[in-house]
Batch of 2 targets.
Target 1
Amino acid sequence: MENKDFLIVAHNTAGMLLINKTLQNENINTDLVPAPPQTGTICAIVVKIKGNDLEASKGILEKENVPYRDIIEDRKLKLQGLIDEKLGIAVSNEFLSVLKKIENGDELERNDIVYLLKTDKPKEVDVIFSTADRIRKEMVGDVVEIRGAIEFSNYCCKSCSYCGINAGNRSVARYRMSEEEILKVVDSLHEAGIKTVILQSGEDPLWSTERIIKLIRAIKERTGMRITLSVGERTKAEYEELKANGADNFLLKIETTNRKIFKEVHPDDDYDRRIQCSKWLKELGYINGSGNIIGLPGQEIEDIAGDIMYFKEMGINMIGIGPFIPAKGTPLEHLPHGDIKLTVRTVAVTRIVCKKVYIPSTTALASLDKDAQVWALNAGANTIMLINTPEIYRGSYRIYDNKNMVDMESAIYAVRKTGRKLPAYLRYS
């Protein structure tokens, strides 16, 4: 029992936070982690405790009259049949060692992840992708979730060197959508059956927390849709207010866990502050999103492995992985784009390491090759984000150049080409 971990499943997010706080107040070590598939919940969070704290935790929750839905053992995902005689000399002993860990459900170490990202042996690469796809199927199923994004403002006070809407880029036509314009798009998403709307913007001071809360309330009242925010760094109090008023998910990408590269591409941001923001989001019960960029200047494979380790250790629920694509008017505009194959490999290895998480097949991939979204879905991705920004503004939300228009038609194309399933909730012609 002492060597096992257990997961406490709550009835809802508020219950999960209450369980976590109650146990922490009694000096029980807890962690908030993505819920495993056997809980029957999608994109949810559970409270993780050590086996030697199980009976004490049960007693505390009973004494404090804190309800919970279930307590289950945190079982390893064991994948039998990865290693067979057909592999032969086509793979290395080191690769076989990593596969054995995956078969047994053991955690991979950083050097294992580096190997999976670096290997160029064709058979090993094939096995990496097939393993990732198998884990995806067992953990999140065959349905590809479809979400709709509205890029409602391209004003930004930050100077990120890779981003085409950074504060110093004078070549961008700036815009802010009105609440009425945003709600009109939300209504169209709701009519299409989409369950989650993503509200994304630059770090725009005129879109204050109070104004975003007003928008969240209006969306909830009109549609009841889940809301993902991607509006940058805020204070813990602001994140708490946004959550209390209906925000469900939050996307705040780390971009890179290499401190030196982070500082170079985020000249007016602080690495530790970014990490703290992600911790706050986790503590407040958000479905917590992060992600990285493949191909930033100076980035090494070891850095990407560090990113994946961070996603795992932070208990990130949604992980966006995209290639670097240069944007006109930025300090990095003349650099080449990130490698598509490495980006897709990173998707696969992230699925192997992080298992039950949401991984989008990103718009950035689709912008480099029409079929890159298909490749990412085959490598373990399970979500597609539609771009629903009105056409009048769409070309001005230029985080990178030559951004592809990922619409319902292209999403259906990608899903059908992989033989996967579209969500039953979707209404499309």
Target 2
Amino acid sequence: MTDRSSRRPRAPRGTLNRDRVLAAAVDLLDHAGPDAFTMRALAQRLGVGTMAVYSHFQGKDEIIDAVRDLLFAEVELPPADARRPPHAELRELCRAVYRLLSEHPSVLHLLATRPVQGDEGTLFAERALGLLRRAGLDGPAAARAYTAVMQYTVGAALWTARGRKVRAAQGCDDPAERLRSRFAGLPPDRYPCLTGLAPQLAAAQDGMPQYEHGLDALLTGLLGDPDGRG
């Protein structure tokens, strides 16, 4: 027998619209993951029947495309400025991508499963490669540098997103405290570095600041001294 108390409350008639559907889709993807995204699950999250969702979108693929466009529209790429050092502009570009992926890690899955129709990722890649060339790298070096920066950005964003998910599941809002508790029980004679550097390791689990620390080191190694980085 179905437990009626576990059902989501029904939405008032006439309140459903495309914006509400997309907001619920983003929430479902972020918290349940792409594999759990179905029209039925989305309808349940909205508190409506499945056919009510179809009155605004033709199907799952159309919703996913709209979600992807919506999320990419949130990325504020810095305006191109030939007077700025390439390092500074590239840093801003990477920060924008990191922020998007760390807040919405399902974007990677959406890009992998649904071909890009617009300029979302293409525009970023063109800008980044152009900046690397303007910084003095030749073609092969710019391609390798772009790949290295993107690998780091994607990995760091997924690390941050995973940490946030684990903390939510464990009911722990402080990643530093979680690490301190984990290392407190380790024998110092066997793990001298982990126990000795526990406070420093805990302090490094701070999202964007830690990402920027690694990004600056990577860009400096690739492009040299970042004068006027900003």
